[in-house]
Design brief:
Its main location: cytoplasm. It is found in: Cytoplasm. One of its GO terms (molecular function) is 3-oxoacyl-[acyl-carrier-protein] synthase activity. The chain is 33% helix and 23% strand. It is of the alpha/beta class and 335 residues long. The protein has two domains: 3-176, Peroxisomal Thiolase, Chain A, domain 1 (3-Layer(aba) Sandwich); 180-196 and 221-334, Peroxisomal Thiolase, Chain A, domain 1 (3-Layer(aba) Sandwich), CATH 3.40.47.10. The strands form four sheets. The protein has a five-stranded mixed β-sheet with strand order 1-7-6-4-5, sandwiched between helices. The chain has a four-stranded mixed β-sheet with strand order 8-13-12-11, with helices on both faces. Strands 2-3 form a two-stranded antiparallel ribbon.
Length: 335
């Protein structure tokens, strides 16, 4: 029997900082309106012709591999989570394998949006626990900025999202009291369209639509979110899946040393913090600086929390996410 243990962490965000005041120059919004609803002050956007989802993932991965104290050729498998791949296909997993010069290991792409990193972590954890692999590279990376409606029409969504990448190396741990204790995954597809990007997609003959119709009023090429409905579901599912993970390991909220939630909305994190009776030093948020980076948000936040000394050996760390699909999940980790 083995556990998987996070042995290396890294993240990368573009240098280009986009403040709320910057957004107010291109759409009818303001700093107070954005902060009140989301808690976001600024986010990072890739400059045109600069980084891609893959290159950001590669930069984060290099840091994680170095910190894990292993060579790139020690990586047995790659799991890449994103909703914003460089290409329609193939996915970025194989591009990372190529760009890092890793031997011909398997590469898997995960399309679970905001829950993507939890799902990817769970897959890697099970591969290691089965004995199949020893070191797995898990990446969450997103490039939202090139696909947002940066006008007043799209402001309710476009002010939320940012670009960035985070990575973790999971390695075999023979002490089963350490590492990833359990992961818990769920979905509820009946609400799929409440947070979605409908086109391009094969359900809508996207090449024909773009070339022949070119309808400037077609909003299906931009993200849609039923904000209030998503918020109401998120606070319920976050709470449920955190408690599910704690109970599975005979733990209680009082045992949590650090909760790292998906950075969807600061108000959601504050609601969960209050519900579980956690102090400010027990919950890590950085949405104020980076916005919602979807599959990248948890690994970026987890890396920052670790870098800042907020996570120490022996700590109980809980990761939790909720997002499009709807999908949600949690991971219980003994650091």
């Amino acid at each position: 029997m083995y556990n998987s243990k996070i042995t290396g962490l890294g993240y990368f965000v573009p240098e280009n900082v986009v403040t709320n005041d910057d957004l107010a120059k291109v759409m009818d919004t303001n700093d107070e309106w954005i902060q009140e609803r989301t808690g976001i002050k600024e986010r990072r956007h890739v400059v045109k012709g600069g980084d891609t989802t893959t290159t950001m993932g590669v930069k984060a991965a290099k840091i994680a591999i170095e910190r894990a104290g292993i060579d790139k050729d020690d990586i047995d498998f790659i799991v890449f989570a994103t909703l914003s791949p460089d290409y329609y296909f193939p996915g970025p997993g194989v591009l990372v394998q190529r760009d890092l010069g890793i031997k011909t290991v398997g590469a898997l792409d995960v399309r679970n949006q905001c829950s993507g990193f939890i799902y990817a972590l769970s897959v890697a954890d099970q591969y290691i626990k089965s004995g199949m692999y020893k070191n797995i590279l898990v990446i969450g990376s997103e490039l939202h900025s090139h696909g947002l409606d940066m006008t007043t029409r799209g402001r309710s969504v476009s002010v939320i999202f940012g670009d960035g990448a985070g990575a973790a190396v999971l390695s075999r741990e023979e002490d089963t009291s350490k590492g990833v204790l359990s992961t818990h995954l769920h979905s509820e597809g009946q609400h799929a369209e409440e947070l979605s990007l409908i086109a391009p997609g094969m359900g809508k003959r996207w090449v024909t639509d773009i070339i022949d119709e070119n309808d400037p009023n077609d909003e299906s090429y931009f993200p849609y979110m039923n904000g209030q409905f998503v918020f109401k579901n998120a606070v319920v599912r976050f709470s449920e899946v955190i408690m599910e993970g704690l109970k599975a390991n005979d733990l209680t909220p009082a045992d949590i040393n650090m909760l790292v939630p998906h950075q969807a909305n600061l108000r959601i994190s504050q609601f969960i913090q209050k519900k579980f009776g956690l102090g400010d030093d027990q919950v890590f948020n950085n949405i104020m600086k980076y916005g919602n980076t979807t599959a990248a948000s948890i690994p970026i936040a987890l890396t920052e929390a670790w870098e800042n000394g907020k996570i120490k050996e022996g700590d109980l760390v809980v990761l939790a996410a909720f997002g499009s699909g709807f999908t949600w999940g949690s991971a219980i980790i003994k650091w």
